[in-house]
Amino acid sequence: MADIKIVVCFYGTGYDVDDEDGEKVTIRNKKYSNIRRKKDYYSGDLVYSFSGSNAFDLGSTNIANNIKNAVMLLSDEIDKWVFENRYNDDTIQINILGHSRGGATATRVAQKLRNMYQKNKKVKINFRVSDPYAGPTHRGKNVSIDVKPNKTTFDAEGSEGAVFYSMGTAFHYSPQKIMNAKTVFICQAGHKGTAYYLIHTKNNKEGVYLLWRKGIKIISKEVTKDNLKEVMDEIYNWEKSYSARTRVLTEVIVKKLNLKIDDVLETGAVREWKPAFEKTLGKIKKSLFLKTAFNYVFELFSDKLFGPYINKKGEFFRHIENAKSAVAGIGNNDYEEAINQLDMVIDGSKQLYKAELALALKERIMRYYNLDKK
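User: That's the sequence. What structure does it adopt?
Assistant: Structure tokens below.
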């Protein structure tokens, strides 16, 4: 036997497979007209195609059914191949492609198969998706999914997980948030246009890349902290606001680049961040009650701006909670303990914004107890 590749294509909303996509598929004694199979004329790879869902994601081709049927089909194929090749070093590679709702389906199928075969080094599961979107009624992993690599399947040489995001769409809808994909592409294109980049982009290097077209040629630029503002400005030009899509793209890019809140504030890349942060500092300064001052800090990290970027069980929040408990409550007047807790943030934090927030709270406590006049 030899290495084998299987390609799986999940189409977008409203696209149905037909006889050109191959013969109807039978899975565990049941025939499916919405799933087709054929051999690619040029590569010889086995190709499975799945019809896309309808506008309301109802019926036999909805996301849930396509995930279930694909996992059954592919796990049967993999198990059969693994058994037949148990005495050699050959590998089986599953390349899963999808656009729009098909993209949201593809990532779910890839994750399920990776979890099933993560200890089998003979099995490689790859995915490439363009502008994945499940729809407004969906929740959970159809909306946000972490495809973090493991030490077997994901890290195999040549394996990939790539997502191609559009910079903007007419309806500003939120795409599926895919965390820890090996490669993230931000495309200067609308929703449909991202499929072109998925097909024609060969880059498989880890990182974040800005893509645009010059004629039929695709130009690629790696995104770094140094050019983050330039890239975000491009996204703002498409979306015109800090929309749901912009928030998803921001989180995916910032976390993939391993940037901190300080890094983003320093670049000024996200236009809403610095004004929101400075507004919070001002509200702390003007607050009438200490409890209110502390609540302003918690509000800053509960919103859609800063919330996804901080560990709410970490030392910063622990010190802030302890400081609040010491002074913000009936009969709680242990301002020395509160100041001590805040000083630990001011002196020990590697993040400037945390130190600034703690300093603002400390100064408010000192004014409240007239300590700044002693």
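Confidence is low (pLDDT under 50) at residues 151-158.
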